[in-house]
Design goal:
2 copies of one chain form a homodimer. By secondary structure, chain A is mostly helical. The first copy, chain A, has a single domain, classed as Orthogonal Bundle (Arc Repressor Mutant, subunit A), CATH 1.10.10. In chain A, 59% of the residues lie in helices and 6% in strands. A two-stranded antiparallel sheet of chain A has the order 1-2. In chain A, strand 1 and strand 2 form a beta hairpin. The longest helix of chain A is centred in the C-terminal third of the chain and has 22 residues. The radius of gyration of chain A is 18 Å and the shape is globular. In chain A, 35% of the residues are buried. At the A-B interface, helix 1, helix 2, helix 5 and helix 6 of A face helix 1, helix 2, helix 5 and helix 6 of B. Chain A binds a DNA duplex (30 and 30 nucleotides) through helix 4.
Chain lengths: 164, 164
DNA sequence: CGCCTATCGATAGTATTCTAAGCATTGTAT
DNA sequence: ATACAATGCTTAGAATACTATCGATAGGCG
């Protein structure tokens, strides 16, 4: 069980730390993507929500938060920006008046075709020289680490089930 | 060369996106670590600098920025906090009066033994169920993605050479 | 020397994200 | 039915990190 256990000193080298590597990876993707999206007038924060809504329009704010992986207050702020940019409209639910459903505008739907190629290109650059098998391993293990820590942190995140 | 190329639609599922997974991983580590460090009165931001300085005391602010992976203005702010917390002192270089060397205080050095076990524990939790080989793959590929994107972003980051 | 450029650090201003706490609405149990 | 708890969203306030820019020092070259 304690198979992969390491001495504390091991983690004094940042490149041995998955948290550190994840942070750098996240920022590197962010910077590369930012440049391309900015040309279309879209921020990274907006893009994250658009990506989810393109696939599943009409989610509530809470569902959105969990899909995107941000806290609810952050979602509120982000949605304000999206609404001001005329990319989404918010509709109060009829059955449960606490809920607010978020819907894309035609303008936002049109962005899908324009933005996704840039996303694919950033990924192409980032993943250059990696095999399909290696990529599968990386994704599976990151999901596992997220799940391991989420359980420990008592967090609620929406991720695909891995124990079907 | 375009071996792993994917259609744009592939990246509409966030769990296919390395950037998304890296962000969640980073945040999950951060939250878990934060709880433990807070008990010792240390913030995550401070911890990042301490880890580097424990191994290499007396770096300049620019060197620190690159080792830690943050921009210089962020480092300036962070060092102010560290100085106020009496964890570092800053000394102007004699040879080159532009430079400022950052040195740990005894208090900061004492924290090393207290903090590292918590870091190791968070890693133990996060990495549960992963083999040594798998971990090596993950780290190697994240470093590769970071390097791929850094080159493309014209970024300067200090990472171990991988083409000796 | 005297000027131009590069480097190091600091500042100003903004964007992002979080925690903690609050309101309104709904569900539940007595 | 009424009180209590849970849910969904919002607000307030703070921390973190960024871009753009500036001031001071150092190095190179005429």
């Amino acid at each position: 069980m304690a198979r992969g256990a390491r001495k504390p000193e091991f983690y004094e080298d940042p490149t041995n730390s998955l948290g550190y590597l994840a942070r750098l990876t996240f920022r590197a993707f962010g910077r590369a993507l930012q440049k391309r999206l900015a040309a279309k007038g879209v921020t990274i924060g907006q893009w994250r929500f658009l990506r989810v809504l393109w696939v599943e329009d009409g989610l509530t704010q809470r569902e959105l938060s969990r899909r995107v992986g941000l806290r609810e207050p952050t979602t509120v702020t982000a949605l304000k920006g999206l609404e001001k940019a005329a990319l989404v409209v918010r509709e109060q639910s009829e059955e449960d008046r606490r809920r607010v459903h978020v819907h894309l505008t035609p303008k936002a739907r049109r962005l899908r075709k324009q933005l996704m190629p840039h996303v694919a290109e950033v990924n192409r650059i980032a993943l250059k020289g990696m095999s399909e098998d290696e990529l599968q391993t990386v994704k599976r293990l990151l999901l596992k680490a997220i799940a391991n820590l989420a359980e420990h942190n008592d967090d609620t995140i929406d991720l695909p089930d891995e124990t079907p």
